[in-house]
Amino acid sequence: MNAFTKVPPDMSIREDMLEAYRDFWSWLARPGTWWTGAERVAIAAEVRQARTCAFCAERKKALSPAMVQGEHDRASDLLPDIAVDAVHRIVTDATRLTQSWIEDNFSGDLTDGHYVELLGITVCVISVDQFNRALSLPPEPLPEPESGEPSRYRPAGAEHTIGYVPMLMEDKASDEDADIYPGGRAANVMRALSLVPDCVRQWQKISHVQYLPAEKIIQPDAETERALDRAQIELVAARVSSINECFY
Questions:
Q1: Which of 7, 55, 91, 143 could bond to 29 as cystine, CB 3.0-4.6 Å?
Q2: Residue 248: its pLDDT value, please?
Q3: Buried b (16+ CB within 10 A) or exposed e, 142-170
Q4: CB atoms inside a 10 Å sphere around CB 179
Q5: Cα–Cα dist 204/212, whole Å
Q6: Residue 121 — pLDDT band, cuts 50, 70, 90?
Q7: How many C-alpha atoms does 85 have within 13 Å on its Cβ side?
Q8: What is the mean pLDDT of the chain?
C-alpha cells in the first residue's frame, strides 16, 4: 500500500512504525468482522469529523450528555446514526461512557460485535492520527475501501465477565486466537477488544511501535530498544493518561 511514504526529508521516523501504520491502513480498507470495508473507512472518517463536531462540543460542556439534543456533523451518510453517535462519543467524551449507554446501543441496531470493532478502529485511527499531529504532519489520506462481506467471526469462548461487553479470557481462547495474548497473559485493555480478535492484533501492532511489545509491559527492567528508557516512557505515558482522564 502506498501510504505513509511522504516523510519530510529533515525528519527521521522509524521504519517499523511506518510499516505498522501501513499494515493497519491496509487492514482498515478490507472487509472486517462485522463491518464492510466501506463502512470501516467511514468509521475512520467519523473519528476525524468528531473533533470539529459542534454538537459534540456542546454536549461535552454539559453536565450530562443527555441534556443536549441535536445532530452530529457527520462525515457521510454511510453509517447508521447510532454508529456515528458511538464514534463521536468515544472520541470526544470517552470518560462519561456508561454501561447503560452501552446497553442502550445494543438494544438498537448496533450489536456488541459491531461496537467492539468500531471501538478498535477508532482507537487505532486516533493513535495514528495523533502521531502525525504531534509531528505537525497532515493526516494520512484514508484508504480506498475494498469490496467483500464481513466474516462475522465470534470467538466461542467470549463471555460477559468484568466488562460492559463480552470478552475472551486467556483460558477460553482457542488455538486460533491464543496469539492475541502473548505469553498467555493479558490486561483488560487487551481483553476489551477481544470479541473481535483482529482488533486486538492491530492494536497490538501499533502499541508495539508506539509504546512497547505487550509481553514487555509487565517487565519493568526489559530493554525498550527506544531512544527513551523505560522510566522516561512511563513518565510520558502517565502524563498523557492524566491529560486524557484515563482512570487507569
A1: 143
A2: 65
A3: bbebeeeebeebbbebbeeeeebbbbbeb
A4: 12
A5: 9
A6: very high
A7: 17
A8: 92
